[in-house]
């Protein structure tokens, strides 16, 4: 079914392009009324593929609540103004969209365009839920490499782009500007600052130098990757090669144990996101590791804080934080695949993504917008963007779902217990290998 839908859509797209090219002035780009007679259109515009949407098309788009919904509504209204195609925006969480589409899609009830995190791509492709992005060369030229890699899927050694990227996020180092004059650039420096700060800690006024969710593999992977560990081979596309217990991974585990022993003698269960936020908002914490989702939290608390890239490890490497790529995808069961593709393309235009940053503050992965004045003036966005240069997209193959639980438990054991680090990681890696083998039967 997926292959049939893809071939049918390709045939429709080729036909629509031929029709569009035969019409004078047909284009997905607005006309430049100020162009002088005889002046040539820039090559990038000449290469833009025009799509002729289906007659009578009307679309449904799914997106998150709050600011993201506000932006989606704006996109829908502007799209309708330009193409006279009505778009209904419905609130469906991006983490729930793929699961909802599995039942709604075949029944003809799902959204034509929907928002999903990139680590769902493998499952969506395997389930035949999404159509590929029909403009891969254009997107590879205009979008950050991490955004392209995250929304692509590799099968039989061939990578195919499916998503239309709308935002990139990762985590970095928050610091209290009233307590830290200049953020640490190495963990050696951070440990020294933290120990000095913690000297004044008392039972009534506890102080900590650095906090993070130590048992959450989403965060712990930064150290594993920074020391040379990896999840799967071939840039996380080969699940037959597991690197979760190699020499680098063991060094990461030993680093986490050193961090516990020297700075944070608490059980994993006592280091929750809420507890970390409370210490930071009460000026009892120098540093925390988190993502842009905590900016509003600390702003509302009135904390004078900054954000910086993660400090370098003792091997000179920056920890490889996970990056998440938010993107739009076109439902393979859409009645109007050409109109839906046009909407996804319109939503990820430079103009619409600039508006998205204005409304949501989320970093657009469009290369042209990295020089945007509003983005460059936002110190938080620029810090996360700098860390994103060292980040790796979370693996999006279905086998990644076998990793989270064993590796999360492994780092809890490394933190809470005195068991040998290599022994703990060997057991977790074997669990992953067994689960992958079971999936592939």
From TrEMBL:
<keyword id="KW-0762">Sugar transport</keyword>
<feature type="compositionally biased region" description="Basic and acidic residues">
    <location>
        <begin position="29"/>
        <end position="40"/>
    </location>
</feature>
<dbReference type="InterPro" id="IPR006061">
    <property type="entry name" value="SBP_1_CS"/>
</dbReference>
<dbReference type="Pfam" id="PF13416">
    <property type="entry name" value="SBP_bac_8"/>
</dbReference>
<comment type="similarity">
    <text>Belongs to the bacterial solute-binding protein 1 family.</text>
</comment>
<feature type="region of interest" description="Disordered">
    <location>
        <begin position="24"/>
        <end position="47"/>
    </location>
</feature>
<dbReference type="InterPro" id="IPR006060">
    <property type="entry name" value="Maltose/Cyclodextrin-bd"/>
</dbReference>
<dbReference type="GO" id="GO:0015144">
    <property type="term" value="F:carbohydrate transmembrane transporter activity"/>
</dbReference>
<keyword id="KW-0449">Lipoprotein</keyword>
<keyword id="KW-1003">Cell membrane</keyword>
<dbReference type="GO" id="GO:0055052">
    <property type="term" value="C:ATP-binding cassette (ABC) transporter complex, substrate-binding subunit-containing"/>
</dbReference>
<dbReference type="GO" id="GO:0042956">
    <property type="term" value="P:maltodextrin transmembrane transport"/>
</dbReference>
<keyword id="KW-0813">Transport</keyword>
<keyword id="KW-0732">Signal</keyword>
<dbReference type="GO" id="GO:0015768">
    <property type="term" value="P:maltose transport"/>
</dbReference>
<dbReference type="InterPro" id="IPR006059">
    <property type="entry name" value="SBP"/>
</dbReference>
<dbReference type="GO" id="GO:1901982">
    <property type="term" value="F:maltose binding"/>
</dbReference>
<feature type="signal peptide">
    <location>
        <begin position="1"/>
        <end position="22"/>
    </location>
</feature>
<protein>
    <recommendedName>
        <fullName>Maltodextrin-binding protein</fullName>
    </recommendedName>
</protein>
<keyword id="KW-0472">Membrane</keyword>
């Amino acid at each position: 079914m997926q292959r049939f839908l893809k071939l049918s859509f390709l045939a429709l797209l080729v036909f629509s392009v031929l029709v569009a090219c035969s019409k004078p002035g047909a284009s997905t780009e607005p006309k430049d009324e100020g162009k002088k007679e005889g002046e040539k259109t820039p090559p990038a515009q000449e290469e833009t593929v025009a799509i002729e949407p289906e007659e009578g098309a009307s679309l449904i788009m799914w997106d998150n609540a709050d600011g993201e919904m506000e932006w989606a509504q704006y996109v829908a209204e502007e799209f309708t103004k330009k193409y006279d195609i009505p778009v209904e925006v419905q609130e469906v969480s991006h983490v729930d969209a793929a699961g909802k589409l599995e039942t709604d899609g075949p029944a003809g009830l799902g959204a034509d365009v929907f928002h999903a995190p990139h680590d769902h791509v493998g499952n969506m492709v395997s389930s035949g839920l999404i159509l590929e992005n029909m403009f891969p060369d254009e997107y590879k030229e205009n979008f950050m490499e991490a955004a392209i890699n995250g929304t692509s899927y590799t099968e039989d050694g061939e990578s195919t782009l499916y998503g239309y990227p709308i935002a990139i996020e990762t985590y970095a180092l928050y610091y209290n500007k009233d307590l830290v004059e200049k953020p640490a650039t190495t963990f050696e420096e951070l440990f020294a600052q933290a120990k000095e700060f913690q000297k004044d800690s008392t039972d009534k006024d506890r102080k900590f130098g650095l906090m993070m969710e130590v048992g959450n593999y989403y965060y712990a992977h930064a150290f594993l990757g920074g020391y040379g560990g990896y999840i799967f081979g071939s840039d996380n596309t080969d699940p037959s090669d597991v690197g979760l217990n190699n020499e680098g991974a063991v060094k990461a585990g030993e680093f986490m144990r050193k961090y516990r022993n020297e700075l944070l003698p608490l059980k994993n269960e006592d280091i929750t996101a809420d507890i970390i936020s409370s210490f930071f908002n009460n000026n009892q914490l120098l540093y925390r590791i988190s993502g842009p989702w905590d900016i509003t939290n600390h702003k509302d608390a009135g904390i004078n804080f900054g954000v910086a890239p993660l400090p370098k490890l003792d091997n000179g490497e920056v920890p490889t934080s996970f990056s998440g790529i938010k993107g739009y995808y076109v439902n393979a069961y859409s009645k109007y695949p050409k109109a839906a593709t046009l909407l996804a393309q319109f939503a990820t235009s430079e103009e619409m993504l600039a508006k998205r940053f204005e409304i949501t503050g989320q970093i657009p992965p469009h290369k042209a917008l990295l020089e945007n004045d509003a983005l460059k003036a936002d110190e938080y966005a620029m810090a996360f963007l700098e860390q994103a240069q060292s980040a790796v997209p979370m693996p999006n193959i279905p086998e990644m779902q076998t990793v989270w639980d064993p590796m999360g438990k492994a780092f809890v054991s490394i933190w809470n217990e005195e068991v040998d680090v290599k022994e703990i990681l060997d057991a977790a890696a074997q669990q992953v290998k067994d689960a992958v083998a079971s999936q592939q039967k």
